[in-house]
User: What shape does this take?
Amino acid sequence: MWYNRPMKTLVEKIDVDNIGKQQIAAAARLIQQGGLVAFPTETVYGLGADALNPLASKRIYEAKGRPSDNPLIVHIADFADLEKIAKEIPKKGWILGEQFWPGPLTMIFQKKECVPLETTGGLDTVAVRMPNHPIALALIKASTGFIAAPSANASGRPSPTLAEHVYLDLEGRIPMILDGGPVGIGIESTIVDFSEAAPVILRPGYITKEMIQEVIGEVSMDPGLEHSNSAVPPKAPGMKYRHYAPRADLILVEGQQENVISAINHFLEEARMQGKKAGVIGTDETCGLYKEGIIKSIGTRKETAVIAKHLYALLREFDDLDVDIIYSESFSREGIGQAIMNRMIKAAGHRVLKV
Ligand code: AMP
Ligand code: MG
Assistant: This one.
């Protein structure tokens, strides 16, 4: 059978501006048969399967090595389909959907019977998103209308922002990757939970708390997000795992810019003396100030969106360089900065040094 490992992974280049009907049809057939297809979205590449087929969902967990209690996001292409899989949708949920869909926003509601527990990690709620990417939308429409898709990385690795990342992680484990080029945003969607009395942000993303509050009024942040060792576990099961992680140890250094630079220079010297290969994540503004180590810029501090877009690819670049330890500057938590810092802190396994 096609899903026996190892299998050949077909990489289909597909042009966003002129989407090949045959490629979409072939990918859609795979999904309809319960198979897996990796595809681009505006946030990161997703690994898709028919969300209403429990066996298909199980294959996602197998291919990624994802813990089975970590639920999948169901992707739709038509706003009206929301009601087919979710119930008790509050007015504010409809309003947010109208405002931000298609887009990098995931909303959680009570699930309807048709959504299998295999898709929701055993929960009676379902996470739903309408992605803003023509290839993703075409694939969803041409297949089953409901595609469960987590990020298309091997579990624990940085999310893929290029088809090549997917190939490196999942080659031989999935039958097809639709290569639509680099993604636009580079960080996963904002997740808002509507399954309780008041809306709560479970994962920060490109759509910020402020943007959401402007539309529906007060929303809170999941208290489990803020504190690493708090007694409160994060409500999105996926947020409790070390995630987005490079192979090397990552240490975030936070403080005034001059202090950060001199602390990192000191750590680099120490690392060299210990015979360790060290890397630095700096910015266009600061890279020239580091004295040794493998120094890479994540972008300019003037454009936070670019920093978001480069983050995961940069972490993967360090993997290829076989460094033992990476020291990174920190970023402002304004706007999308909140999502960037959330992912970086997780990638660092909460090792943040204040200087
Ligand atoms: P990924 O698609 O890899 O970005 O991961 C999806 C994220 O959404 C994970 O952190 C999940 O734990 C979270 N998630 C999905 N469905 C639910 C749900 N029903 N309740 C809470 N969190 C969810
Ligand atoms: Mg993920």
The chain has eleven helices and 17 strands. The mean pLDDT is 94. The first strand starts at residue 10 and ends at 13. Residues 150-151, 159 surround magnesium ion (ligand 2) (CB under 6 Å).
